[in-house]
Amino acid sequence: MRDIERLFNEYSESHMNPTNKMIHQLAVPLIYFSVIGLLWSIPVPDWLAQYGVNFAHIAILPALYYYFLLSGPIGAAMTLLTIGCFLVLQQIAASEVAVWQVSVVVFVVMWILQFVGHWVEGKRPSFLTDLRFLLIGPAWVWGSWLKRLHISY
User: Fold this and answer.
1) Which residue, among 152, 136, 14, 131, has the nearest Cα to 67 in the 3D structure?
2) CA 33, CA 36: separation in Å to the nearest integer?
3) Reported pTM
4) Contact yes or no for 14/28 (Cβ under 8 A)
5) Residue 103 CA: distances (Å) to CA of 20, 95, 112, 116
6) Are 88 and 153 a contacting pair, CB within 8 Å?
7) Could you give the CA distance from residue 13 to residue 121 in angstroms, rounded to a whole number?
8) Nearest CA among 51, 36, 24 for reference residue 99
9) CA atoms within 13 A on the CB side of 130
10) Considering only 25-39, 50-64, 98-112, 132-146, which range has the smallest mean pLDDT?
11) Which residue among 84, 117, 121, 133 sits deepest, i.e. has the most Cβ atoms within 10 Å of its Cβ?
12) What's the pLDDT score for residue 125?
């Protein structure tokens, strides 16, 4: 069994309840977005800022590399999600609201939803047993969409 399939199977064990699955379909990508937003908000040195680079740009590279190691289609899907996150964050950054404020609110609300989902499920979140599942969650959401579209990963 490929590593991506094994990880998705393990992750799925604590995500069987339809309500929990639905919550995760919403909350996991938004948590991914909020983490990128929080990294985006960390001040960077001027020598880096002059190139329009922030810590989100730097931190996402090893994560995307990991996703591509697991599966090309998952890596591509996560790249699309990441580009979407960056585009929305650019819009927020151009507005009157601080990116970090939006990110904190989204992060807290979505984690509360996640824990409600796991309470409904009656199982602990997967990341409590293996921290890799913090990265696997967003890929698992994409994996379910890829399956619906009949795209193998």
Assistant:
1) 136
2) 5
3) 0.91
4) no
5) 22, 14, 14, 20
6) no
7) 10
8) 36
9) 11
10) 132-146
11) 117
12) 78
User: Token pair 């880096």 is at which residue?
Assistant: 48
Question: Which H, E and C letters describe 78-118, residue by residue?
Answer: HHHHHHHHHHHHHHHHCCCCCHHHHHHHHHHHHHHHHHHHH
The residue with tokens 């991506």 is 4
* Three state DSSP letters for the chain: CCHHHHHHHHHHCCCCCHHHHHHHHHHHHHHHHHHHHHHHHCCCCHHHHCCCCCHHHHHHHHHHHHHHHHCHHHHHHHHHHHHHHHHHHHHHHCCCCCHHHHHHHHHHHHHHHHHHHHHHHCCCCHHHCCCCHHHHHHHHHHHHHHHHCCCCC
- Closest by Cα among 69, 68, 64 to 81: 64
pLDDT at 75 over 70: yes
Q: Which amino acid appears at position 56 of this protein?
A: A
